Please model this.
Amino acid sequence: GDSVTQMEGPVTLSEEAFLTINCTYTATGYPSLFWYVQYPGEGLQLLLKATKADDKGSNKGFEATYRKETTSFHLEKGSVQVSDSAVYFCALKGRTGGFKTIFGAGTRLFVKA
Amino acid sequence: EAGVAQSPRYKIIEKRQSVAFWCNPISGHATLYWYQQILGQGPKLLIQFQNNGVVDDSQLPKDRFSAERLKGVDSTLKIQPAKLEDSAVYLCASSLEWGAEAFFGQGTRLTVV
Model:
């Protein structure tokens, strides 16, 4: 079945460092891909999405590109801030999965001042 | 626009007791999801409704979990009797239609002692 694998955390960075969180997926066909963020004590929020190959999703300085050839959707940010400290979830939604959102295990990010 | 509302935010019960969670989706959203998020893991879909019909309940432990969505709007998720391993955050989400972007509530944190 469909699945998502993302890099284990926690990831600890200093403020203004470059961030990459790796995400790869397994799915039949062409799923939509998402990054969700969960700040401490809050619910899941959609951070960005891409619905077809080579699309780039972007929001709040974060970017991710849908790479079908490598089945990847890595999250990047050029300069992280303390306020970016959260748990980041990669997810997919596809026809073969009945359009339910399937999540990776999450990657916790700590940003130090 | 109001988001997905869930209550209660927190619940502590003893094992073998019963508990119920309530969810009010975004107005007009036909699809409603219940997810279970165990600490350190990504959310796992328990059940998906399309209006008041069940689309997918393949991962719902039906011997103890039940859910309903009367009138295709609000939904309740019940656990009876609870086990220690049911301790988790229960997330409700809704989307405009099957396959569209899902919006999440803040969740109910359940602790079974």
In short: Chain A has no helices and twelve strands.
